[in-house]
Prior knowledge:
CATH class of the domain at 176-258: Alpha Beta
Largest sheet: 4 strands, antiparallel
CATH architecture of the domain at 176-258: 2-Layer Sandwich
Shape: flat
Mean pLDDT: 78
Low-confidence stretches: 27-43, 116-127
Oligomer: single chain
Helix content: 40-55%
Amino acid sequence: MAEEKKKQAAKKTKAKKETAKAKKEAKPAKEKKPKKEKAREIEEVKPESWEGLPVTKSVMDAIAVIAERENLNKQKTDEFIDIIKGKLEAITVEPGEAVGIVAAQSLGEPGTQLTLRTKHYAGAAEVSVGSGIQRVEEIVDGRSKAKYPTMTIFLDGKANKDKAKAEAFAKSLIYVKMEDVVELNEEFAKNRALVTVNEEAIKEKGVDLKEILGMIKDSIKEGKPSQRKNSIEFEFDKKESLLKIRKSLMKMLNSRVHGVKGIEKALIAEEHGEFVVKTSGSNLKAVLKLEGIDGSKTTTNDIIEVSKTLGIEAGRLMIANELFKTLDENGILIDLRHIILLADLMTRTGSVKGIVRTGITREKASPFARAAFEETVKHLLDASFKGEIETLQGVVENIIVGQPVRVGTGIVELIMKPKK
Length: 420
């Protein structure tokens, strides 16, 4: 009996195992989700696929970034590359295109229609900016100093939302000399001089009276000072040289009280929900050293100052931006590429050169090209004395001698031999 019970138990266990196995096999197998194909990385773009097109590495990098961001598969990435190729082919300049002449026409023709306008910022203090043809000439000539230099100073997070702090900072920027806040009365017959502080002026300029009086005492060492409420009287020794006393007084009047040299006015303006400081006068190098400003945004309209402080690439960008902005303000729309071509030409030597006889024209290799601009006889004589050779490679030189110009169809050299 015991053996039969054991056999039956073994059969039941075996039956249960077979049933469980059958159920497991009957369940549908889980489908594996297809893995998303990774976006094609920049290394996968073979250089051979870009041959024959002026495509820079930066374009390839940009395509890779977009493909990764949009999660494009290989097919979609290839389609995207084809679209970019088509766009590049459409905007590529044809060989022989006279890009310089086209750019000159594009900028020169509207320039004749510009009128002189002066723009004023709203507010009690005015900040003048040259506009119109005057500003265009200033940029193109590469003048060493802007006629209306201005700065836009962006403040850091502590002051750009607080008007009181922004106004205090703006006041501290204005360059104040001693002669702006004091009056000098000289009595050399009695060997004395009286320096009186103008209380209204120091209040307006945000200067402390005690600070000013202390600076006056420190400046004049030759006399014996006697201080009153808002003035100091100096008594000089009769043996002291009057010329020395006079020089000391003039040095005191020209000394700096506070502010940044070159900045005459400053006012607060609100832009995009934050306070910025607009100035009349410019000193980018000194302002960038100040605490409490955002140096990455702060700028000036003086192109030469920008190129000397931040480098020639920044100067090139400023030429393009300022020229485009000036023309745009007057309702003249010019393709930015013409302006960039001019900016490239003006800055290619590493310093800003104007389109004047002392600028880029002076550096041309061709004597005829230099002579065609200005001072014809002088340039031809100089070339003769130096024994320069005219290679007739440019446009102007070939027009002078009456040859076909080497642009457009002029660059093609085809000779057809007719059959005998």
